[in-house]
Amino acid sequence: MTVPTKKTRVFSGIQPSGALHIGNYLGAIQQWVAGQGQKTNFICVVDLHAITVPQEPAALRQQTRELTALLIACGIDPQQTTLFVQSHVRAHAECCWILNCVTPLGWLERMTQYKQKAQKQESVLVGLLDYPILQAADILLYDTDEVPIGEDQKQHVELTRDIAQRFNYQFGETFVVPKPVIRESGARIMGLNDPTAKMSKSDTVRGHAIRITDGPDEIKYAIKRAVTDAHSQISFSSDPERAGVNNLLQIYQLFTGKTRPEIEAHFAGKGYGALKGDLMDVITESLRPIRERYQHLLADPAELDRLLAIGAEQARAVAEPKCREVLERVGFLRPS
Ligand code: TYM
Q: Would residue 94 count as lying in a domain?
C-alpha cells in the first residue's frame, strides 16, 4: 500500500501599504503563482502588519481591496490558493501573543528591517518591534513547509525557525520548522535609478520603481533612465560595478522565462539601447493584461469581499485548531 504524501504547505504574506512594484512581483508573487496547484498555498494580505506604521483608515481599507484585486490579476486563483486578509483570522493575533512570551527581546532588536524602519520614524510603535513575531505566528499556524519570499524577508523567516524550535523544546513538538524559498534571480530587484538600493515601495522618486499597474509611458520613463555602466558586453555579473545591467537582465529573465545563456546569446554584439528597448516591450506586454484584469476586478468590490470571506473561512479551518493546540500546550485552562 502506498501512503499518500502530504502536499507541501506554502505560506506567504504581503502588505497592503502602497503600490506594488515589479520587485514584489518578480521576487514573490510570480513564485506563488508558479507553485499553485502542486502545493497547498496560503497567501495572506497582512493588514495587521501594515498598521505597525501609521495608516489612514479609509486608505487602508481601499488598499486591502486593491491588493486583493492585484494578486488575482497577477494569477493568484482563489480556487487553488487560500487568499485571505490577516485580520479576518483572529488566531494570528492570539498566537502572536503566546510567541511574544517565548521570544527574547534581543532577538527582535537585531532585526535589520526593524532598525531601518525605526530610524525613519519620529516615534517608534511597539508593534514595529513585534512585527516579526506576528509574521512567525502567520507562518507557524499553517504548519508551513515553505515560505517563498524576496531576500529582504529571509531574516524574519530565520527568526521564525528559531521561535518554532524554542517553543517545541519548551512545550513539546507543536510547530513545523519552515524554510525560506528565495529565487536566484529576483531575490532582490534593485532600484532602476540606483542599483545599490533595493526597489522599495517607500521610495517614490519617479524612475526608481516600475509599479505593476504602470502603463507604457511610466515604464519607458524608468527604463530609459535606468542606470547602466561603461562596459559594452551584455552579460549577467556579480560585479557591483555592473549591478545596474545585471538588474535589468534579471528583470528580463523573469519576465521572459528564458535562461541566462539564451539571453546572453540574444544580446551578443548588441548595445544597451537594444537591451533597454527589448526590456521596455517585454515589461509593457507582460503588465498590460495584469493591469486590464485589475481594473475589471476593482470594479466589483462586492465580489472581492465575497472571495475574501471564503478565503478567511478556509484559513480559519486550519489556523483555529492549531491555535487551540498552542493554548493547550502552554497550560491554559480551556473554557468548557
Ligand atoms: P512586503 O509586503 O514588503 O513584500 C512582499 C514580498 O515582496 C518581496 N519584495 C521583493 N523581492 C525582490 N526584490 C525587491 N525589491 C522586493 N521588495 C519586496 C518581499 O521579500 C516579500 O516576499 N513582512 C512581509 C509580509 C509578511 C510575510 C508573512 C511574508 C507578513 N507575514 C509571512 C512571508 C510570510 C512584508 O512586509 O512583505
A: yes
pTM comes to 0.96
> Is residue 195 assigned to a domain?
no
Cell numbers describing residue 77 = 486563483
Copy the grid coordinates of residue 309.
Answer: 470571506
Q: Provide the number of structural domains found in the chain.
A: 2
How far CA 41 is from CA of 23, 125, 253, 266, in Å, comes to 21, 31, 25, 35
Q: What is the reported pLDDT for 2?
A: 59
Rg over alpha carbons for the chain, rounded to the nearest Å, is: 21
Question: Can you list the residues of the chain whose pLDDT is less than 50?
Answer: none
The answer on 222 and 89 residing in a single domain is: no
pLDDT digits (tens, 9 = 90+) for 99-148: 999 999 999 999 999 999 999 888 899 999 999 999 999 999 999 999 99
DSSP string spanning 35-75? HBTTBEEEEEE-HHHHTTS---HHHHHHHHHHHHHHHHHTT
CA distance 20 to 33: 16
Q: Would you call 91 exposed, middle or buried from its count of C-beta atoms within 10 A (0-12, 13-18, 19+)? A: buried
Gap between the Cα atoms of 47 and 212, Å rounded: 20
**Atom of ligand 1 at shortest range from CA of 153:** 20
The residue whose CB lies within 8 Å of the most ligand 1 atoms, and thus the one to mutate among 51, 153, 248, is 153
CA 14 / ligand 1 centre spacing (Å): 6
Give the per-residue pLDDT at 18. 85
Domain of 136?
Answer: 9-188+300-330
Whether residue 234 lies inside any domain: the answer is yes
> What number does the ligand 1 atom closest to the CA of 150 have?
20
Of all protein residues, the one whose alpha carbon is nearest to atom 31 of ligand 1 is 135
Which domain CATH number covers 275? 1.10.240.10
Query: Which residue, by CA, sits nearest to atom 27 of ligand 1?
Result: 13
pLDDT at residue 183, as a whole number: 94
pLDDT value of residue 4:
59
Query: Is 34 part of any domain?
Result: yes
Active site residues: 117, 198, 201
